[in-house]
Amino acid sequence: MNTPPQFEIFLVAPPGLEAVLAEEARDKGFADPAVLPGGVAIIGGWPEVWRANLELRGAGKVLVRLGGFMAFHLAQLDKRSRKFPWAEILRPDVPVRVEASCARSKIYHAGAAIQRIETAIREELGAPISAQAEICIKARIIDNEVTFSVDTSGELLHKRGHKEAVGKAPMRETLASMFLRQCGFDGAEPLIDPMCGSGTFVIEAAEIAAGLHPGRSRHFAFEALASFDPAAWEAMRAGGGAAACAPGAMACAPGAMACAPGAMFRGADRDAGAVRMSRANAARAGIDTITAFDCHSFADLTPPEGPPGLIIVNPPYGGRIGNKKLLYGLHAAFGQVLAARFGGWRVGMVTGEPSLAKATGLPFAPPGPPIPHGGLKVQLFRTGALK
Ligand SMILES: C[S@@+](CC[C@H](N)C(=O)[O-])C[C@H]1O[C@@H](n2cnc3c(N)ncnc32)[C@H](O)[C@@H]1O
Known about the structure:
Number of helices: 10
Shape: elongated
Strand content: 15-25%
Largest sheet: 7 strands, mixed
Strand order of the largest sheet: 2-3-1-4-7-6-5
Bound molecules: S-adenosylmethionine
């Protein structure tokens, strides 16, 4: 019997969060994740590729390294690209496109490299080339070594397929999930986002508690690759999470379908449109029975009955929405509400402006590294349990 092929799988992470993604990969049973700049490398075969796309909350994309060769000029790139075993990866009936980058190499013109590789694929395999193709081959030419990868995700993985409605400055689901992980959230404690916008943190938290796979509802590029096995994929996807837990239990173990007697995962926003959006997004994600969204200002926020948990929040900040000066007062008032009413709760605040975190007066530990998000950099500020 042939051994199934194994290759390097690269899980893309925002710079600064590679180690957090590696921890998630380890927790989800991927062996020996290696932290690299911009992501995490693991070794596996196609089933691991599918599972990484299906299960990892923090990865932005899953790339597969296909191999490569040395090329010192374009004619050599053309010849060797023609001999590359494209038929093992690509289908002749599925459109494809190529992206390239060059560094420290005799071939320095990415456009010319793309043209050679695309021509080789079209003429040798017969696959149509299209700028709109979902399937993308990435060629990196560094020190005259050409390495091909294929993007197995397609659309970025923060698109879980449940969120149609988004607000002015939504947090990416991938980033939200990694910030939750950094706050020590594992689904077994209540959570509140008092400025929830489109509900990203609350919905991610509820899905984690319910043991639902983030990719359960969406399509992936790997479904159109030569290696795809629809029956094996369906079996993998159907096997995901969501076992029942004891009725009346306050919290469910991670991996069990949450069935707490009230909503453990709550969002609020003073904007009625945001609350409507959050409810609709939660319903599409199928976690509306364990979430609740209310329309009010944080000034009216009170802790629910039961044990304390995590307050996670991404308040408005100057660079993107709102006026920075007005925001200092808002942050100070927010900090006072939490300090006065939320003893025992931990706080995680994501902001692009450290001075706004300081304005809350909350006892934040030194923040995490700046993470690129929507053209800005954001940082996670965390407290321990408030007194
Ligand atoms: C940066 S957005 C949050 C985005 C959210 N994390 C998401 O993924 O969609 C900030 C939110 O704070 C809300 N907000 C601003 N001032 C507020 C207040 N005083 N009370 C409650 N919500 C407020 C805004 O309506 C906005 O939806």
